[in-house]
Structures are given as structure tokens and as C-alpha cells.
């Protein structure tokens, strides 16, 4: 029988719920359901996210707080003196006037174009004053990235460099932690070169293999809040825009900027050149990290050895004193244990006699409002008894308690869904619910669980 809060689940959702509980080891069924609902019942994503949280890793699926802004981005050195800036400008076509008539017409229209451009800039500036750019409000950075990846694959297919499925800040953190190059791509949806760059360059098999092997790849559209704040931080001039970031001088640094439409061979050559120039900094960082780890390991080993020696000395001091006390205490405990066990057996035997007299007679076979209970004891013994539905569950408890093969401390549980019946009277609940209130069916198979096993 399903619990009350799971009755609205479909069979597929119930199966996913049980599978998720089995994979994660979370006993609380309500918590399992909440996690699955948070991840839209995507069990693979939910399990991965739960395991990441258990290991202390950042969750790539949790939404960021709504009040975060661009000031929360990690500090990155965007303008070092050794930065390589590569800008490829599109050659204008058909814009130069030809002949005397063309130049005359061009000069005649020049003032009108100037006035038009100035008025258009003023209108845009005024519009921004009264209506701030909605991209400045950061609401769901992970969602922005995931939506960009989905839109990119719909437009250009699933073969592309492996996108980092997380925020820009998380990607920087992982690149720094793993000492890897990080390639950032800002996608300008409306730029004239974006489509050609994505199809001919970014999704080229050689580029895909190169990027996947040499770097961590993060991308987002500048039309989203997450992409916009990264563009403000990196200050790109045109699109397509690529930035290569690496740990250098203990800071994440933009060591190269590639702007404009570039072909695959040109892009790979430039990236390979920059990576080669900056590989030494990563090698130094790896060596420093290894030295720090080695020194820390040595200090930890020394601390452990010192603590072991100190504990050994303290143990020697205490040993003689405790030995005599231990022997006396063991003898006293053994005597008390024998007395307590005897008293406990006598109390249990007396209590079983008293409670057996309180168990009502079993209803007859022709009783209408009765429930048939089958019980399985821990040793495999099976019991069968009928009760009236309006009778309290305490009589079920008394019946099991008084049986000679039943454990003294036990619980009665259902099979599926697994739940414990509150049938033992306590100070807080002196009168347990009835069989009807416990929502037991006309015939139930119950299991007796030994709490001391």
C-alpha cells in the first residue's frame, strides 16, 4: 500500500523514486521525491547532482540566487602586458563609391548619415535611461548556459566541443583546480559572422578534438544575463569572441583574445601558439602544488607520529592504574548483569501474563467487520489472527508480545510501502489507532522486526 504523500505518483514515477533511493541510499522517501521533482524527474541528473553534493563539489544544476550580479564574478586579470590580441576584421564589400558620380552622391549623403547616426545613438541612450537592459538582472545563470547549449545543438547539431554545463564562475574554479586552460566563447546571436563561425570553424572535427584535448570549454549567448555579464567582464569588441584563460602568477589570466571570423587552421595555430607560450606557467603551478601537497603530507605524517608517541606514553602511565580498577569494575558489572537479567525475565513473564488477559477473543469466521492479519516472526514462524477493525492496534502488539517465539523488543512493519505501525502504547500515545485508522486492508501480511538484532 502506498503512503499518503505518494498516492498521486504514476507507476513510472514510483519506479524512478525507488531506483533513486536505491542508488543514493537516502532513507527519507519524501526527500527523494523532492529531489526528483526539483530535477523534473530526470533520474540521471538527480543522482549525479546528489553525489556531487555529497562529495562537496559544486552543483551544476542548482539555481543561483536572484540578487547576484556581475560583481560576484571571480577576479580575472583581463589585460596583462603579455596578452595576445588577435582581431580579424571583415572586409567591407560594396561600400566604397566608384567613379565621379558615386563619390558625389556619397559626399552629398554624408551629412544626412551623420545626423541619422547621431539621432539614433541619442534615442538608444535615452531609451536605456528609462528602460535598463534586462540582461543586467541575473536570475538563472545555469539555466542560461543550459538553454544556450540546447539552442546551439538544435541549430548546429550535437557534434561540437564539449560544453561545460555550469556557470562561468564554476568553470573558472574547475579550470584553476585542475590546472587546465579554459576557452571562453561568447555567442553573438545577431552577428553576421556567427553562423559561419559555428558551422565551419567551431564544429569542425579537428577543432572539436583540439579544444576537447587541450582545454575546458565554456560558452554562452550574450543575449542572456550570464553571457552579458561575462561579456562586460571580458570587454569584447566584436563577434565571434574567444578568450583563453589560464592560471598565471597565481591569478586566472586572459592570455589571448581572438575576435572576428577565423578559419579553423588559423584558430588552431593561434591557440596552439598561446598554449605553448603559457604551458610553462601551468608546469610551475603543478610543481608548486605538488611541493605544497608533499610538505603538507610530511607535516601530517609528523603530526600523526607525534600524536601516536604521545598517546603511547599516556597509555603507559594510565595502564597500571586502570588495570586494577578495570578488574573490579568487570566483577561488579558481571554481578549486576546477572541480577538485572533475572529481574528482566521475571518482569517480562509477569507482563506477558497480564497482557494476554487483555487480548480480546478472536472474532468468528462469519464476522463481517474484521481483518485477517498474518505475521512473520524473525525466526520464520508464521502467525495468523483475526481482529475487529474498530479494535486498537495495541491488541495486535499484545498478541505478538505474548507469543513464546516473539522477541521482547520489536516493531511491526508493513512490506510495501515499508512503514512501521504505531501499535505499542506509550506515555505520549497511550491508545494507539485502530486497524481502520491505520488504513490496513481486509487481509494484511505484516513482519515482526527484532530491534535487538
State the gist of this model.
The chain is 50% helix and 14% strand. The protein has helices at residues 11-24, 29-38, 43-54, 99-130, 141-156, 168-178, 194-202, 205-214, 225-234, 264-356, 394-401, and strands at residues 84-87, 181-187, 215-221, 241-248, 251-259, 370-376, 382-388, 410-414, 443-450. Helix 1 (11-24) packs parallel to helix 3.
Describe this structure in words.
- Helix content is 50%, strand content 14%.
- The strands form 2 sheets. Strands 1-5-4-2-3 form a 5-stranded mixed β-sheet. A 4-stranded mixed β-sheet has the order 7-6-9-8, covered by helices on one side.
- It has helices at 11-24, 29-38, 43-54, 99-130, 141-156, 168-178, 194-202, 205-214, 225-234, 264-356, 394-401; strands at 84-87, 181-187, 215-221, 241-248, 251-259, 370-376, 382-388, 410-414, 443-450.
- The two termini are 26 Å apart.
- Helix 1 packs parallel to helix 3 (43-54) and helix 8 (205-214) packs across helix 10 (264-356).
- The chain is elongated.
- The chain has 453 residues and is an alpha/beta fold.
- The chain has 11 helices and 9 strands.
- Mean pLDDT is 83; it is low at 1-5 and 62-71.
Which stretches of 5+ consecutive residues score pLDDT under 50? 1-5, 62-71
Give the number of helices.
11
Structural class: alpha/beta
Distance between the termini: 26 Å
Q: Using only CA atoms, what is the Rg?
A: 37 Å
SSE order, as H and E? HHHEHHHEHHEHEEHEEHEE
Q: Which of globular, elongated, flat, extended, rod-shaped describes the shape?
A: elongated
Q: What is the share of helical residues?
A: 40-55%
The largest sheet has its strands arranged as 1-5-4-2-3
What's the count of strands? 9
Query: What would the average pLDDT be, to the nearest integer?
Result: 83
**Largest sheet: number of strands, sense, barrel closure:** 5 strands, mixed
Determine the oligomeric state from the structure. single chain
Q: How much of the residues is beta strand, in percent? A: 5-15%
Amino acid at each position: 500500500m502506498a503512503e499518503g504523500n505518494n498516492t498521486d505518483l504514476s507507476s513510472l514515477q514510483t519506479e524512478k523514486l525507488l531506483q533513486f533511493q536505491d542508488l543514493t541510499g537516502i532513507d527519507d522517501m519524501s526527500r527523494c521525491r523532492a529531489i526528483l521533482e526539483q530535477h523534473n524527474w530526470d533520474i540521471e541528473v538527480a543522482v549525479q547532482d546528489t553525489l556531487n553534493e555529497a562529495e562537496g563539489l559544486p552543483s551544476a544544476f542548482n539555481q543561483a540566487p536572484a540578487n547576484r550580479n556581475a560583481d560576484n564574478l571571480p577576479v580575472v586579470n583581463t589585460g596583462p602586458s603579455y596578452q595576445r590580441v588577435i582581431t580579424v576584421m571583415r572586409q567591407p564589400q560594396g561600400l566604397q563609391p566608384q567613379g565621379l558620380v558615386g563619390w558625389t552622391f556619397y559626399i552629398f549623403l554624408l551629412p544626412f548619415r551623420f545626423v541619422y547616426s547621431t539621432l539614433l545613438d541619442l534615442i538608444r541612450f535615452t531609451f536605456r535611461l528609462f528602460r535598463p537592459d534586462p540582461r543586467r538582472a541575473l536570475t538563472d545563470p545555469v539555466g542560461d548556459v543550459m538553454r544556450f547549449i540546447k539552442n546551439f545543438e538544435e541549430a548546429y547539431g550535437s557534434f561540437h566541443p564539449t560544453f561545460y554545463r555550469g556557470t562561468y564562475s564554476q568553470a573558472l574554479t574547475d579550470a584553476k583546480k585542475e590546472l587546465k586552460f579554459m576557452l571562453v566563447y561568447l555567442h553573438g546571436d545577431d552577428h553576421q559572422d556567427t553562423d559561419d563561425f559555428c558551422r565551419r570553424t567551431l564544429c569542425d572535427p579537428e577543432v572539436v578534438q583540439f579544444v576537447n584535448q587541450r582545454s575546458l570549454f565554456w560558452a554562452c549567448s550574450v543575449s542572456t544575463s550570464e553571457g552579458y555579464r561575462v561579456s562586460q567582464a571580458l570587454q569584447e569588441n566584436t563577434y565571434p569572441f574567444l578568450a583563453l584563460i589560464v592560471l598565471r602568477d597565481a591569478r586566472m589570466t586572459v592570455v589571448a583574445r581572438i575576435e572576428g571570423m577565423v578559419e579553423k587552421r588559423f584558430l588552431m595555430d593561434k591557440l596552439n601558439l598561446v598554449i605553448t607560450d603559457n604551458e610553462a606557467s601551468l608546469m610551475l603551478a603543478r610543481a608548486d602544488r605538488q611541493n605544497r601537497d608533499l610538505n603538507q603530507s610530511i607535516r601530517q605524517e609528523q603530526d600523526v607520529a607525534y600524536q601516536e608517541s604521545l598517546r603511547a606514553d599516556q597509555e603507559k602511565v594510565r595502564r597500571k592504574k586502570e588495570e586494577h580498577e578495570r578488574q573490579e569494575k568487570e566483577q561488579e558489572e558481571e554481578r549486576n548483569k546477572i541480577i538485572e537479567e533475572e529481574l528482566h525475565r521475571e518482569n517480562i513473564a509477569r507482563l506477558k501474563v497480564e497482557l494476554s488477559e487483555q487480548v480480546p477473543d478472536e472474532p468468528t469466521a462469519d464476522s463481517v467487520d474484521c481483518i485477517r492479519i498474518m505475521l512473520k516472526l524473525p525466526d520464520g514462524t508464521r502467525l495468523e489472527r483475526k481482529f475487529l477493525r474498530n479494535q486498537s492496534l495495541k491488541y495486535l502488539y499484545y498478541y505478538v508480545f505474548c507469543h513464546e517465539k516473539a522477541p521482547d523488543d520489536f516493531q511491526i512493519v508493513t512490506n510495501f510501502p515499508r512503514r512501521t505501525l504505531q501499535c505499542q502504547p506509550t506515555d505520549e500515545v497511550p491508545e494507539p489507532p485502530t486497524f481502520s485508522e491505520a488504513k490496513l486492508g481486509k487481509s494484511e501480511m505484516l513482519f515482526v522486526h527484532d530491534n535487538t538484532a
